[in-house]
Write a structure and sequence with these properties.
Helices cover 8% and strands 50% of the residues. The protein is mainly β. The N and C termini lie far apart (38 Å).
């Protein structure tokens, strides 16, 4: 999802993420969550100016299962 916050004058975006497996110690990992961010100028973003972002969720794995 994405949009424009008129009051802040910023573009925003939000996505979901999912882990369904991994390798090594992370084999069998599962998890999901959301990430998103905000930025004012898309041209600057394309030019390499970083955007403030966040990510949250839960990842479950069993490191002792190896």
């Amino acid at each position: 999802m994405s949009g424009y916050d008129v009051q802040a004058g910023e573009n925003w975006f939000e996505d979901t993420w999912t882990f369904t497996d991994g390798t090594g110690l992370f084999a069998g990992v599962t998890g999901s969550g959301q990430e998103g961010g905000r930025f004012k100028d898309f041209g600057e973003l394309l030019g390499g100016v970083p955007a403030a972002m966040w990510m949250e969720g839960t990842i479950t794995y069993n490191p002792s299962g190896k």
